[in-house]
Specification:
- This protein is mainly β and about 775 residues long.
- About 10% of the residues lie in helices and about 50% in strands.
- It contains nine helices and 38 strands.
- The longest helix is centred in the middle third of the chain and has 11 residues.
Length: about 775
């Protein structure tokens, strides 16, 4: 078979943007006066050193995490999303201790899963950060965590101008740190459990007449905590900033990332009970994999190690020989902020390219009469480029913002099968080295996003009352083309469009330390490629009646802060309409047409409470409590009535509680964190669930200060899963099903056991 490749057109704009990078606000240096530093942090949350649960004057619920939490209290190299897990309303899950293993990585806000949230880096859209590479990339591939300054979380309704076409349930905005004003070199080395080794180096030029820049490189390699294989990544970042005049600046951000990950095996409730928490892929045990494949095809008996499973369990899918993922990304953004004399113009152009491959050694397709397995790959390609811009000016007591966002994305996904000759123990891209003997599908998608918005913020009663209101218009069109005959995917066009999506809010300052707020927002989500993952007949029958998902969110809340505390209480109600549900009637390793249903509305209501106490210098205690009641409102039809009305949304706990203690004194720094996650349902009819659990992390470090040639020197120890708790972390990794009372659906990931990591930090 002749190999088919897709060549994506790159315009002159895209080529220019390949040189580019991001815009961010200048990174603040904490002063000696703690009270002044806290005030500055509240005025500009992008400069935070630690956590802030308040945002005075904001008309919606916002919390921020600064560099202290992102870098210093976590194991170096951990995802910034993991730091957000301690905030109210946030659930973050991953099967590895850093939150970086993408097949398992998940975040939910107020009952909305990751595919219905919005993510940006310095205003550059990251899409839904999904594994399948259709609209963006994970933040861990977009920027090295040490180069982040702040993460800002908006539960329920993000800023009106956020560059996202999926933010039904909230936004997460990442902001990169600016280069240091003084030249220097930073170095961090991590060693730890499972042969972990991670090296990070960054060099800063210092400021030279308004110009500054840094370059960094990070290399990480670790064995899996169970099974065979390792997870390896290399990442380079560059940021350059030039500032002049009264508030003018341009900045360039560039990122290059290469990642290889051997997978962890998806578990079911039953397979975990029968085979244990350490059950994984078989590699390098080729003979057992061949035995399972032969038994699956009626040519023998299943190996004895599967005897513990029930007789009616699909033993051929209990494990496979191997699985893995490979990703290569390049991201660039060129940003400018220009003082026009009475107005400010912000603009960012960006370009992102991704190539990747997901692998499974499948027993459902033989390589030859003597080799009953083959390599099944899903091969990805993505090129996208876009532009965001905003004009900001003030008229009397009105702050007005007008903006636009446009993006073009070209995506291809294909399913290929390659021959295997026998045992292999390497992870490499089959697509580059072999010709497939079978292609199940080859889909090409062209997606165009166009958004415009206008917003007015009015300051009244001597700035005690803030009212903002505005609206955006969003249109997203996706054209799908099937380049080889297939029964599993459809081709055609889908459009999600709404000319008026309003957002309004009010904040009233009770006194210098207290305020109350309320907000309303209506949002629309693009279809993405979901409607095309079914047969052509089903797509043609459904496309005229499919409606894009919409949400309406109401929030009210109270915030307070004083010399020693910050506190917030938020109440929310969300109505989620036209929820699209995809079910696949075959094992995950098998290619087949999915079923797409509009399952009606989901209603979410709940409360978030956060409290930070700082009774003495150096001591911080954060507590957050969340209650979330998210329920389907309707039954739906799929070969009969599926009784989902009043059932709880899958994968979302009803209650969560987080507590985090940190203390600094005389160069020492220690932190202890605990998180309770309530029971989560894993079927739409709620007849199967994973139990609640507690998990704790701890860390201790000592800062030696300036030592000899070092400007700074410190060592640290981090322990994840301190009490070695067994628990299910990620759910729905292979999707959810309507009913599974026996717990056979292999869609769960075990959390990593207790692990230890030592790190050395040095500055020259």
């Amino acid at each position: 078979m002749t190999r088919v490749r897709i060549s994506f057109r790159r315009t002159a704009l895209a080529a220019a943007l390949a040189l580019s990078l991001h815009a961010g606000l200048a990174h603040a240096t904490a002063g000696d006066d703690e009270k002044a530093a806290a005030t500055d942090a509240r005025d500009n949350p992008k400069q935070l050193d630690a956590i802030s649960v308040i945002a005075p004057g904001e008309t919606r619920q916002i919390q921020s995490i600064g560099v202290e939490e992102i870098v210093r209290q976590q194991t170096p190299g951990s995802s910034a999303l993991k730091a957000l897990d301690k905030l109210p309303g946030v659930q973050f899950q991953s099967a590895d201790p850093w939150g970086a293993y993408e097949w398992s990585t998940q975040i939910t806000l107020h009952g909305f899963d990751q595919s219905r949230l919005g993510f940006t880096l310095d205003g550059i859209p990251l899409g839904t950060m999904g594994y399948g590479v259709t609209d963006g990339l994970q933040v861990t591939r977009a920027i090295t965590s040490e180069n982040l300054a702040t993460v800002e979380l908006a539960q329920g309704a993000g800023a009106l101008g956020t560059a996202s076409n999926t933010n039904l349930g909230g936004t997460v905005q990442f902001f990169s740190a600016d280069p240091d004003a003084k030249p220097g070199v930073r170095f961090n080395q991590v060693m730890g459990s499972d042969s972990t080794s991670r090296t990070y180096v960054r060099a800063d030029s210092g400021d030279h007449g308004g110009f500054s820049m840094y370059v960094s490189f990070a290399h990480a390699d670790t064995d899996k905590w169970k099974g065979f294989g390792d997870q390896n990544s290399n990442q380079a970042n560059l940021k350059a900033v030039y500032q002049w005049g009264d508030g003018n600046r341009i900045s360039l951000f560039a990122d290059g990332s290469k990642r290889k990950e051997y997978d962890y095996m998806d578990l079911s409730l039953t397979s975990q009970r029968a085979l244990g928490w350490d059950w994984d892929y078989l590699q390098p045990d080729w003979n057992t994999a061949v035995g399972i494949a032969n038994a699956l095809n009626g040519k023998g008996q299943y190996p004895a190690l599967l005897n513990a499973l029930p007789a009616d369990y699909g033993k051929g899918d209990a494990t496979y020989y191997a699985g893995g993922g490979i990703r290569r990304d390049g991201l660039a953004g060129l940003s400018g902020s220009f003082n026009l004399g009475g107005a400010t113009l912000d603009a960012t152009g960006y370009y992102h390219a991704d190539r990747g491959e997901g692998q499974w050694a499948t027993p459902y397709q033989a390589s030859s009469p003597t080799v009953p397995l083959s390599m099944r790959t899903t091969d990805y390609g993505l090129d996208r480029y876009g532009l965001t811009s905003a004009l900001k000016f003030s008229l009397a007591n009105h702050d007005i913002e007008l903006g636009v966002w446009g993006e073009n994305a070209n995506t291809n996904q294909e399913r290929n099968f390659f021959t295997l000759d026998g045992q292999y123990t390497a992870l490499y891209t089959f697509y580059n080295d072999q010709q497939p003997f079978l292609r199940a599908f080859l889909q090409h998608y062209e997606t165009k996003t166009r958004m415009a918005y206008a917003e007015d913020t009015v300051h009244l009663l001597d700035d005690r009352l803030t009212v903002n209101f505005g609206a955006k218009s969003l249109r997203v069109t996706t054209d799908a083309t099937s380049l080889v005959p297939t029964t599993s995917f459809a081709q055609g066009e889908m459009k999600a469009s709404k000319g008026f999506l309003p957002q309004a809010g009010v904040d009233y300052r009770l006194d210098e330390n207290q305020d109350i707020y309320g907000s309303y927002a209506k949002n629309l989500s693009a279809f993405g490629i979901t409607p095309f993952s079914t047969s052509q007949t089903a797509f043609d029958a459904a496309k005229s009646r499919l409606k894009p998902e919409e949400s309406q969110t109401w929030q009210v809340g109270y915030r307070a802060h004083g010399e020693t505390f910050e506190a917030s209480l938020g109440l929310f109600y969300t109505r989620f309409e036209n929820r699209l549900l995809v079910t696949t009637p075959c094992p995950a390793v098998v290619t087949c047409a999915s079923s797409l249903n509009n399952v009606g509305d989901v209603k979410s209501r709940g409360a978030d409470l956060a409290f930070i106490w700082k009774p003495v210098r150096g001591f911080t205690w954060l507590n957050s409590l969340s209650y979330n009641k998210s329920q389907y409102q309707d039954d739906y039809q799929n070969a009969g009535t599926v009784p989902t009305a009043d059932k709880y949304v899958v994968g979302v706990p009803k209650t969560m509680f987080s507590t985090s203690l940190s203390y600094e004194m005389a160069g020492w720094r220690a932190n202890l964190e605990g998180k309770y996650t309530g029971r989560r349902y894993i079927t739409y009819t709620n007849d199967s669930s994973v139990p609640s659990y507690w998990v704790a992390d701890a860390g201790i470090a000592y800062d030696f200060g300036a030592v000899s040639a070092f400007k700074g020197l410190s060592v640290g120890l981090n322990v994840t899963n301190l009490f070695d708790k067994h628990y299910f972390a990620s759910t729905g990794t292979n999707g959810y099903v309507a009913s599974d009372p026996q717990g056979y659906n292999q869609t769960l990931m075990a959390g990593a056991p207790r692990q230890y990591f030592v790190n050395l930090n040095a500055q020259f």
